[in-house]
Amino acid sequence: QPPEPPDEDKLAIDRMLQLIDERLEVAPIVAQSKWNSGAAIEAPEREAQILDQVAKEAGETGVDEAFAREFFDRQFSAGKQIQRRLHHQWLQEGRPPFADPPDLATDVRPVLDRLTPQLIDSLADMQRIAQVEGAGRYLRERAIVLVQDDFDGEPRTVALQPLLDRMEP
Ligand SMILES: C=C(O[C@@H]1C=C(C(=O)O)C=C[C@H]1O)C(=O)O
């Protein structure tokens, strides 16, 4: 029998995976909003602003700042991958603008901003659990169940990478 993390750690890993999935779920809404407005998928100043906030809150929560930055950078990459794939698809379909598009600033970004502190708290758990035997194995197994595999599972792989890099197998 391979070693398994304690139940409490399993719950914390599940929680992290649910939050990652929730964040990825927002990407298609971002894509819709940008499809209508013509805004670029890449918003580097917005990413920089989130990362500044992340660095500050990570410090206060005892999360390694480089780990937190790397983690969020990968979440951005995964989200942008989804946006690019959808825009590519819609371009090929000749899709017209969406009828009732969400507003990026007032409807969509606040949803992502609410997830940020929850993800940082969860990162504090992950930092501790990284040393627990079987944590990486459990995370890998549960990710298949809890995180969407849209677009061939590529965004999922990207989003999980910083966690798996740290975890005991
Ligand atoms: C989600 C957006 O698109 C991209 C992805 C971001 C993210 O995942 O937080 C942030 C900025 C953009 O580069 C956005 O513009 O808000």
UniProtKB/TrEMBL annotation:
GO BP: chorismate metabolic process; salicylic acid biosynthetic process
Gene3D superfamilies from the UniProt entry: Chorismate mutase
One Pfam family linked to the record: CM_2
UniProt keyword annotations, A-Z: Isomerase, Signal
Domain Chorismate mutase stretches: 1-87
One MF term in the entry's GO annotations: chorismate mutase activity
EC numbers on record: 5.4.99.5
Major enzyme class: isomerase
Superkingdom per UniProt: Bacteria
Protein name: chorismate mutase
